[in-house]
């Protein structure tokens, strides 16, 4: 799976979103999630949504694409209230949640990160909680070891209070960029 970088265009979105998957946004153009193409066609046929953006990549012509087009993003006709996931700094979380929160990007160098680092090292009493964990690449995490950020010269990372996977924010931004480009 390709890593998404902030500022990517819709073209790279097409590479990330599976061929039979359609991104769904609500009436405020906020990301809701994704659905299979058949479900997207059903929503459009029932008047619950419309095709907002179509795929630009050329795939094989099928009965489905000849009838319904090749949607990449559909917009629902209604607003979908968002459930905010607020996380306290003391919440114990999984490695997967931390990596998703930080977009698999090392907090220290900006490269691809697949390990989780304790800001205050475990050996110094640092807990494995939301407020004390951050994503790091293998080399930065190994270099830091059980030393505090201040001694290493690293800035203390800003930890968000809400859990919104970075991938969702990047998809949302790419959709808004594409719509803005269409309006000129």
Radius of gyration: 20 Å
Query: Overall pLDDT, averaged?
Result: 83
Tell me the overall shape. elongated
As a percent range, the share of strand residues is 15-25%
Q: Tally the helices.
A: 7
Low-confidence stretches: 1-8
Structural class: alpha+beta
Helix content: 25-40%
Order of helices and strands: HEEHEHEHEEHHH
Distance between the termini: 32 Å
Number of strands: 6
Neighbour order of strands in the largest sheet:
2-1-4-3
Query: In the residues, how many domains can be counted?
Result: 2
Largest sheet: 4 strands, mixed
Task: Characterise this structure.
The protein is an alpha+beta fold and 184 residues long. The chain folds into two domains: 10-81, no CATH class; 95-152, DNA Binding (I), subunit A (Orthogonal Bundle), CATH 1.10.30.50. 31% of the residues lie in helices and 17% in strands. It has seven helices and six strands, in the order αββαβαβαββααα. It has a four-stranded mixed sheet. Strands 5-6 form a two-stranded antiparallel ribbon. The protein is elongated. It starts with 9 loop residues before the first helix and ends with a helix. Mean pLDDT is 83; it is low at 1-8.
């Amino acid at each position: 799976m390709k890593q998404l970088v902030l500022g990517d265009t819709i073209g790279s979105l097409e590479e990330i979103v599976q061929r039979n998957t359609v991104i769904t946004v609500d009436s405020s153009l906020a990301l809701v999630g994704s659905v299979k193409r058949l479900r997207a066609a059903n929503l459009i046929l029932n008047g619950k949504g419309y095709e907002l953006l179509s795929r630009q990549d050329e795939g094989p012509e099928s009965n489905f694409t000849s009838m319904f087009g090749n949607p990449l993003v559909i917009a629902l006709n209604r607003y979908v209230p968002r459930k905010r996931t607020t996380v306290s700094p003391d919440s114990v979380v999984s490695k997967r949640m931390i990596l998703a929160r930080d977009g698999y990007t090392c907090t220290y160098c900006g490269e691809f990160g697949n390990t989780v680092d304790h800001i205050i090292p475990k050996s110094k009493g640092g807990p494995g909680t939301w407020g004390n964990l951050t994503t790091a690449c293998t080399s930065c995490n190994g270099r830091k070891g059980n030393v505090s950020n201040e001694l290493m010269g690293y800035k203390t990372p800003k930890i968000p209070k809400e859990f919104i996977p970075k991938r969702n924010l990047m998809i949302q931004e790419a959709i808004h960029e594409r719509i803005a480009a269409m309006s000129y």
